[in-house]
Amino acid sequence: MEMRLHGLHPSSRRHIKSLLRTGVHGARFGIVSKWWRAAEVLFSRRTSKDFSWLPWSICGLIVVFTGLLVLPVVAEPAPKVCVEDDLSRQVCVSAFPKRVISLAPSLTETVFDLGAGNMLVGRTARCNEPPEVLKIQDVGAYLNPDLERVIALRPDLVLCPETGMRKEVVDRLTELGISTFVDSSKTLNDIIRLLERLGVILGRESEAHTIVQQFQLRRQAVRERVDHAGKPLVLFVVGIRPLVLAGGRSFIGSLIREAGGVNVAEKGDVPYPKFSMEEVVRRDPDIIIVLNKECREDECFNEWRKHPDLRAVKNNKIYQLDADLIARPSARIMDALEQLAAILHPKGVR
User: Fold this and answer.
1) What are the residue boundaries of the structural domains of the chain, listed by start?
2) pLDDT digits over 17-67, tens only?
3) Is 85 a residue whose pLDDT tops 70?
4) With respect to CATH, is domain 229-344 assigned 3.40.50.1980?
5) Separation CA 109–CA 112 (nearest Å)
6) b/e string for 242-260 if b means 16 or more Cβ within 10 A?
7) Helix H or strand E encompassing 140
């Protein structure tokens, strides 16, 4: 239907036609046409003063307004939230992810600590804390997940440990366009940074802030209690046969320093070095600590009692600690640090 645009400057005529083409279409065009004709009738009588511009201006406004009403609604792209992982990669997800898979017990615990456990749709067989995690789909062994199971769960975010995880797992997930956050926390400061970044990407910044504040307060309390005490020599055993210790570059090694101890295996680049019994005897530690999963009942204690000349054995300073607690870099690690500090400084920690 052609509308009469006589009496209007050619440039204005072209402008309104353009508006009609771009802003009005189909049946809606008839509505604007009727408005236009009504305006022509109302303002068709000329006065001594030429107001021919007036009807066209009013109609132009009507056309523009109507065109804006009928323009198709273009959905804005979903906002993205990005953080940097420990491989220095930008990991981005739509705000906020609804289907998360954790491939490490420490990361699973951290998600629950942040109040985002309802987002988890997959976890490894090793993930056992908190107890409700056992209701979540198992995607395979820790450090050896079943990629088919992971992919079938259609995650929009996968949380993955760097240490021990096969590189091809991360590469494959990335190739498939699945956002994959890699964590390599080795110190308490790393855990704080992990909490802050996961708080951002999971939409739990307030919860992360609260946890970090409590974390720092408890950490400072331990420091104040052990800073001026003597530093006992600590042998921390993570494997019996062969004898493997937590070295200075390990996560447990960082906890020994925080708790006010000196690590027998502090020097060296290997996080978990093998040691000979001859070397242990030579170093003669004040305290021996063994992960509870390495022994059955009193097996560890009986093994060390075969070396009665060791200072730790003479003084009955052999302890066990929960491996699931002290070896996992999550917010629960403060419980482990306080237990460790109480062993190393029983008179200095309440």
Assistant:
1) 10-70, 80-215, 229-344
2) 554 444 444 434 444 444 445 444 444 444 445 545 455 455 554 544 555
3) yes
4) yes
5) 5
6) ebbbbbbbbbbbbbbbbbb
7) strand 140-141
